[in-house]
Amino acid sequence: MSFLRRERHGHVLLATMDSADTRNALTGPEQFGDIEAMCAEVNADESVRAVVLTGDGTAFCAGGNVKDMRDRKGLFSGAPFAQANSYRNGIQRIPRAMAALDVPIIAAVNGPAVGAGCDLATMCDIRIASTKAKFAESFIKLGIIPGDGGAWFLPRAVGYSNACKMAFTGDMIGAEDAKAMGLVSDVVEPDALISEALELAQRIASNPPHAVRLTKQLMRASKESGMDELLEMSASYQALCHAEPDHAEAVNAFFEKRPGDYKGSGA
């Protein structure tokens, strides 16, 4: 059984973490591998133009399995060297796969996003929260650190000072506080969360798909690149965009005051 339940809504993929009984915890290879597989599937399918990620039940994602941590099982078993390799070959597959995802991904945070669940949300490009959502970078409460890449993603989502405050205290914050610090873009009522996330994803997917994918690559590269490097990438990508048939369609649609009919190469 897959960890992610996949549903297509036109050019948008809705991926739901489907383990409500564990509060969608990230417990082992099945979860890591399925998120990795979903990213690879989307990259290979150009008819997918945006992804929405959410959780089944009352939680977005409870992070790691604390019972396994207590019992020194699974990811938390073995000597230190073996544990380090377990992280490298286990949960760290998720940030690598998410960082390599070619299309925009929106986290629709329906409930608590704790520990690795909070970090999973920050790996997404955009976050929308239900009023019932809560966030905690809670590793410190268990005497551990964010071993899944949270120390890279969180400061880029909320800024260094806010990230340090969350990571050093482990405090839980509500949806409105998350919005105030920039962790989420919007807060909506629970019943409206998925429809709002899908509507945003559809607005993204309605744009020329090649331009969306290349824009995402530039936005991600901007986190690490110098200005000159990014300008060079931008020039090369722009030349590619001008050569795409969907660019000509977009210009025609602009002058004709109508929506564009974009084909992409995978439609």
Ends: how far apart? Answer: 29 Å
Count of individual beta strands: 9
- In CATH, the homologous superfamily of the largest domain goes by the name 2-enoyl-CoA Hydratase, Chain A, domain 1
Strand content: 5-15%
Count structural domains.
Answer: 2
Q: Write down the secondary-structure element order.
A: EEHEHHHEEHEEHHEHEHHHH
Q: State Rg.
A: 19 Å
Strand order of the largest sheet: 1-2-3-4-6-9
Mean pLDDT: 94
Q: Briefly note the CATH topology name of the largest domain.
A: 2-enoyl-CoA Hydratase, Chain A, domain 1
Low-confidence residue ranges: none
Second-tier CATH architecture of the largest domain: Alpha-Beta Complex
The major pleated sheet works out as:
6 strands, mixed
Describe the structure.
This protein is an alpha/beta fold and 267 residues long. Helix content is 47%, strand content 15%. Strands 1-2-3-4-6-9 form a 6-stranded mixed sheet, sandwiched between helices. It has a 3-stranded mixed sheet with strand order 5-7-8.
Summary?
The protein has 267 residues and is α/β, with parallel strands linked by helices. Helices cover 47% and strands 15% of the residues. It has twelve helices and nine strands.
Notable features of this structure?
2 domains; 47% helix; six-stranded mixed beta sheet; globular; 267 residues; 9 strands; Lyase 2-enoyl-coa Hydratase, Chain  A, domain 2; 15% strand; 12 helices; three-stranded mixed beta sheet; 2-enoyl-CoA Hydratase, Chain A, domain 1; alpha/beta
Topology:
Layout (H helix, E strand, L loop, with lengths): L3 E6 L2 E6 L11 H16 L5 E6 L10 H6 L8 H10 L3 H7 L5 E5 L2 E3 L1 H7 L3 E5 L3 E3 L13 H9 L1 H10 L2 E3 H6 L5 E3 L4 H13 L3 H13 L5 H17 L1 H12 L11
Parallel strand pairs: 2-3, 3-4, 4-6, 5-7, 6-9
Antiparallel strand pairs: 1-2, 7-8
